[in-house]
Amino acid sequence: MTNWTPNLEGRAGPLYRVIADALADDIAEGALAVGTRLPTHRDLAFRLGVTVGTVTRAYTEAEKRGLIGGEVGRGTFVQGQRPPATPLPLGWPPAGETSAGETGSGSAIVNMTTVHPEHAVAVQAFGQTLVAIGTSGRAAALIGYGPHAGLPDHRTAAAAWLERQHRVQATADSVLLTTGAQNALAVALAAVARPGDVILAERLTNIGTKALAATQGYHLEGVAIDEHGLVPDAFDSACRRLGPKAVYLVPTLQNPTAVVMPAARRREIAEIARRYGVILIEDDVFGFMVPDARPIQTIAPDITLYVSSVSKSLAAGLRLGFVVAPAELRSRVETAIRALQYSAPALPAEVVARWIQDGTADRIVATQREEDLARQRLARSILPAGTVYGSSAAQHLWLVLPEPWRREDFIGEARRRGVIVTGADAFAVGRASAPHAVRVGLCMPRSRDEAARGLRALADALDAPAAAMLSIV
Question: Where is this region: Disordered (predicted)?
Fold first, then answer.
């Protein structure tokens, strides 16, 4: 981490913007190189004698300008000032050519920290759909206050979508709309738990779940996982000892390990939850990628709050999520939606509903599946055998590091070679020890060519064990 401290003398305006301007100038002048890790919010606030909130606003402003980026648990890094990216078709340009935008040139950082699919079909359809909406006479319904759970026709379309692409048992009454899956999770937890309550999760879990538990005061406890997901005996023991209100899990393409839980394991987990009166919160954002994976919600619909979104399948920026709730919990879920957001914005829901009805959504998903599978094949052809873990249907992979690599050393070596990945420690719940592994997001690079460049750099790093020993004294 750099000791960067901005020079704020002679600058006018709100303090957070002054800090962001100083950051932009230092990047432009070469004082901060691309890939440099910036001080934490608290450290920089101490150096400047300002509040942590001011630094947070400054970093947020810099991120909006495309200067920096990062992920919870990893830090904030310089990305350099970029021109607005022109949306490109998946897999374009062909191998051998170079894409522009986020990871444009051969010298740019390849950011593989997140799962961030791009959709040329969605980009094209979006403009056309907005024009159609603008002339449809629906404006009053879309820009005014709507029902807390969403407009009835949007919920009907969502139920049809979830049944078709995720194989969920859903009706318009059982589906409540949210602002993305993270908000759906917040709503589901608020409906069944209070600050201080114990929530179980897989020992390695979604970073957003950790952040939510920390901010809302839930006591998050990790449960052992294996190559099939949550371990039943460990789950049973945790339920018996801790009396949890709920368990959060990702049975299909688990985040971060990309594991798909077998059907028999899903039934066993549902039986244990029922035995102890524990609510299952099932995150199925990746479910569309594995057509034969039956959600736990279909096994135990009366004790499951099913959450999902269109972020990984259609378009992340639409921020439309879903909670499928049993009848006994719907009023509590709706109350939580009202408290946290009042209602999900109707305009994105209208876009998605139209795409579901006219087949655009299915075409986008088909394109996304094809690209995800192609990038997995690419990864497995480049990375050493035995290091790639998880399903070949995932938008990410779990890279298990061979001896003598330690994850922190490998992350540093990967960055030195121009690639950013996320270490296992970012996903570990509480003080649980994290394995020497990293998550590699395959869809954030703008093209297969960029993805291949990042993957080759990772393979080269794995093949350089001497670098792993440099930090050992």
Answer: 81-104
Count of other CB atoms within 10 angstroms of residue 53: 11
CB-based burial, 381-415: b 16+ in 10 Å, e otherwise:
ebbeeebbbbbebbbbbbbbbeeebebebbbbbbb
Calculate the alpha carbon distances from 96 to 31, 92, 108, 334, 447 in Å: 32, 10, 16, 51, 11
What six digits make up the tokens of 447?
């093209």
Q: Is 286 helix (H, G, I), strand (E, B) or coil?
A: coil
**Percent of the chain topping pLDDT 90:** 66
Q: DSSP character for 254? A: -
**Domains of the chain as residue ranges with CATH:** 1-81 (1.10.10.10), 145-358 (3.40.640.10)
Nearest to 324 by CA among 358, 355, 287: 287
Residue corresponding to tokens 């006994």 = 328
pLDDT band at 64 (very low <50, low <70, confident <90, very high): confident
The predicted pLDDT at position 465 comes to 66
Residue with tokens 């399948």: 313
Judged by average pLDDT, the poorest of 60-74, 87-101, 220-234 is 87-101
Q: How many CB atoms lie within 10 A of CB 332?
A: 16
Give the residue ranges of DSSP H helices in 113-206.
120-134, 139-143, 152-166, 180-192
* Of 44-58, 140-154, 174-188, 259-273, the least confident: 44-58
Give percent of the chain above pLDDT 70: 90
Residue 93 has pLDDT above 80, yes or no: no
